[in-house]
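Lay summary. Proteins are chains of building blocks that fold into shapes, and those shapes determine what they do. In this project we predict the shape from the chain. Here is one chain we studied, written as its sequence of building blocks.
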Amino acid sequence: MGLLDLSGKLSADPRIQGWLDELNAITDEPPGLTRTFLSPALGRAKRVVAGWMRDAGLDVFEDQAGNLIGRRDCGNPEAGTVACGSHIDSVRNAGRFDGPMGVVAGILAMDRISKSGLKLPYHVEIVAFADEEGVRFQTTYLGSRFYIDHLGELEKAVADAEGVTVGQAIAAHVPEFPSPPARELAGYVEAHIEQGPVLEKKNLALGVVTAIAGQTRARVVVRGKAGHAGTTPMTMRRDALAGAAECVLLVEKMGAAAKGLVATVGQIDVRTPASNVIPGEVQFTIDIRHADNAERQRFCRSLFAEIEKSLHARKLESRIQIPLAAPAAKCSPRLCDRLAEVVEARQGSCPRLVSGAGHDAVALAEVTEVVMLFVRCRDGLSHHPEEFASNEDIALAVDTLADFLANFPLSENA
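And here is the predicted shape, written in a compact code that computers can read:
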């Protein structure tokens, strides 16, 4: 296989920021960016991305879960498939780079390969996953887990706020593009903003990820008894919100005391809220992350026991559900080494980082070798409208991905 000529510069390519701006305007909840699993905005975004994929010489497919796939077939039905991508769903009031940057970078990298005329001995798929953030169902990687056929019955049974289950949502989805062909994965690479400050502090654009922290998501349901706010004595109340508030502080206290771990309550919902009613039922979420699976699991057992103890003391009922328990994922050492070589050729050195954020690579690591390319982001800010990565840094990532995908180091048994 010949080397791809990558002497051209992409820093002035208007498509990089132009495409990201275009996706940023497609939202379910204007004026901010919000795109959730199988929502109308996600469908509109996929139509736009499908056009870019076709322009890059890719055949476009969509699976039943709404994952959009741009495929370059090598002509050999026995060949493996190298996948590259990220997600195009978002958190609420999101930034424009988290997820879509990796999709845009992958498409532009394949555009360069296609225009070079280079023939590859493997298929390549650029994937825009339909759900990574888990906003609708509070369980992440629905898109990538469906892509690898690892979406289990327990995950399909999880319901959204309207009572629709994951399984029902997928069954009701009508894909707009043909179903993708069968594939045998030979590896996966994902480009993503760092969502942290390390690269910026080192004054470097790119780094390689060696591991991704494990993550547990819990949903806690607290039930007390609703009552009149003016007539129920303070000593006779079973206030679900007061109990939940105590648990929120407990999460913060225990999380701060656990080395290398972070724990966050990101959402609280009061059922049938009213200013003159004692809350009778409250639900809240907990997000727990650690690079060591055993430490994360030990913390979860301890935290959940303390939550139940606290709520029981207040004479409140509780139920703790675990919609997600994703193990820590290790990136392939040999793919890390190869990707680091490509990065070093462009910026002189290559930091190796551990990701505290979850990524679709966690799911793909269950079935194939994975590696991630981090791109510097301003102030390490993410999940915020002001998140930012420069056109020049993204262009360097495109250049790096094009080289890596054009010379992907297949394993001996691929």
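What the prediction tells us: The chain has two domains: 15-213+328-406, 215-326.
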